[in-house]
Design a protein that fits this description.
Length: 402
């Protein structure tokens, strides 16, 4: 049978969403738009998952852990009931509630405000070295990669000498191969190295030695009992990865997006007080986390499709934050006047990101200092290198001149 032009056109027009396809990562938004309009409950038969792309569906799923549970993993490639390390993000209420209360006080607005001076000191230190080094740098390698690791390591109480190693392993964990769901060897190596590092560190924390959150948690109790070793390891690895990667990707995304929107950048140059608005719009426009995985607990209908108990469901944050049903006909436009207070870049409900306030503060401080120290920076658009992962978007390399 000979393929006709109609067959070719139909194949080219087929709606396919694979979060691991590198070709999607530079601009997933056309596919997201088609998902919202044509297949709001989309089924990928090859990788065996549903994808929800409309804002209201994603938000509702976040607020309904009884139907969409986190307990079988929050990434598609790590789904399954055998979660070795019990972290906050793979617990649902009421267990999640008790654990969250234990660490909530670390990320209160007051505590985040207290961390601002130290964060600014760290950022300006890196900028001093950048300026001394000439008129060109790689923003990721020289600033946005290392400084968030310094901040979260200081919170945890990790030695300065160990931070490059921790950052390397945290980056490894998110590495994926083009189109492939299976975890590559480098990602597994990164995970096991972090487990090894924190396992070796744990005995001194149990003895009350050291300082910071890692020691505090080792001495703490939840519902009348001390945390288990697996729970402590889970907390440490979660904080290192989430506290580092989210801000690293957020700040680099902000610089790259602003470089392509000079009219918006000019507003910030004229009024640096608008930088918090820019941070919120970057979070909406190019969310660092593009999806979160959930598992259906019961059979239910959505948009005429039947989602079965045990099915994987991806909540497409990146698609929801561009939904014109919520953000209007300019949803695909970057506009810091938008005041996007409804974006869900940090999730929603019980699993709303614990460190959202810290990430916002770090991004604001970094952009304020970049604006002050390197106001004329230009991104080398031909040399930038995309970071490829399943659910995290950002840059491996972002060269700038100034």
């Amino acid at each position: 049978m000979v393929a006709t032009s109609d067959d070719t056109a139909a194949a080219a027009d087929e709606l396919v969403y694979n979060p691991y396809a590198f070709s999607l990562h530079d601009d997933p938004f056309a596919v997201y738009g088609r998902l919202r309009d044509e297949a709001p409950a989309y089924w990928n038969d090859e990788l065996r998952f549903w994808a929800l792309s409309r804002y209201e569906d994603v938000q509702q799923a976040f607020r309904d852990p009884a139907t969409y549970t986190s307990t079988e993993g929050i990434a598609l490639e790590s789904r399954g009931p055998n979660q070795t390390l019990q972290t906050l993000i793979v617990l649902d209420p009421p267990e999640h509630t008790a654990m969250r209360k234990l660490v909530n006080r670390i990320f209160t607005p007051r505590r985040v405000a207290e961390l601002e001076a130290e964060t600014r000191r760290i950022v300006t230190g890196y900028l001093d070295r950048i300026v001394e080094g000439g008129d060109r740098c790689d923003l990721v390698a020289d600033l946005t990669g290392p400084f968030p690791m310094d901040v979260i390591s200081a919170v945890l109480g990790m030695p300065e000498a160990d931070r490059p190693e921790l950052r390397h392993h945290a980056d490894q964990i998110l590495i994926r191969e083009d189109g492939q769901m299976a975890l590559p060897a480098a990602a597994l190596e990164g995970f096991f190295e972090l487990v090894r590092y924190f396992s070796d560190d744990l005995p001194q924390r149990r003895r009350g030695e050291g300082h910071g959150l890692a020691t505090d948690l080792a001495q703490a109790q939840v519902e009348g009992r001390p945390l288990t070793d697996d729970e402590l390891l889970g907390f440490s690895i979660l904080f290192i990865i989430a506290g580092h990667e989210t801000t690293t990707k957020l700040v680099a995304n902000a610089v790259e997006v602003l470089s392509r929107h000079p009219e918006q950048r000019a507003i910030l140059a004229a009024d640096p007080g608008r930088i918090p608005d820019a941070v919120e719009e970057v979070l909406r426009f190019w969310s660092s986390t593009q999806y979160m995985h959930r598992t259906a607990t019961v059979d239910h209908e959505l948009h005429g499709r039947t989602i079965h108990a045990g099915d994987s469901v991806l909540l497409l944050i990146g698609a929801a934050n561009r939904d014109d049903r919520i953000f209007g006909p300019t949803a695909d436009r970057f506009d810091i006047d938008r005041r996007p207070d409804r974006h869900i870049a940090f999730g929603y409900g019980a699993h709303y990101c614990l460190g959202a306030g810290l990430a916002r503060m770090e991004a604001r401080v970094a952009l304020e200092e970049l604006q002050r120290r390197l106001p004329g920076y230009e991104v080398d658009q031909d040399a930038k290198v995309r970071f490829h992962s399943g659910n995290v978007t950002g840059w491996v390399s972002l060269p700038i001149t100034f």
